Amino acid sequence: MLRSLEINAVLSGLEKVHRDRLFWKPRIQLNLDCFVCERVGRTTTLERGAERAACWSGRDEQHFIAARISAFDVTSQEDRLKLRTVVDFWWAPFKDAKRGTDATPLSDWVRLHYGSYCPHQETTSEGSIQTNVRRPTGVYCGGCKTEIAVDAEVPSIRLLV
Fold this sequence. Notes:
This protein is an all-beta fold. It has strands at about 1-10, 20-35, 40-45, 55, 60-65, 65-75, 80-90, 110-120, 125-130, 135-140, 145-150, 155-160.
């Protein structure tokens, strides 16, 4: 059955000079239970515009699954950069092939990527935020090493359908 997850994230306290040069990248890693390999908690990589995602079923092994980013909405307020994204994926109930635990369509982990351009050094850099890190933490420019934002809020994940 088709399921959907809504993911929301915020970077706050945007530094004035870098404010318009910080952006969300259209790449997500998400913890999904994969009925193809029948394993729970698999890291799934999604790119906006791609019609399928990759499930990392082993250290260097991957296979494709039916999942995609169906919405990727960025809003910028005076000192906040917000992301709302929706991931659609096919899901079916199963028991984990190795541990025997029941699968669930709800994810508990996500990594979201951002990029920035440094007007001082004229360089680009990227980084990421994820649900399972200590907060608040600073987001720093890769060029001039200035703190350009704060990662203060845990990204939320909500099952829609």
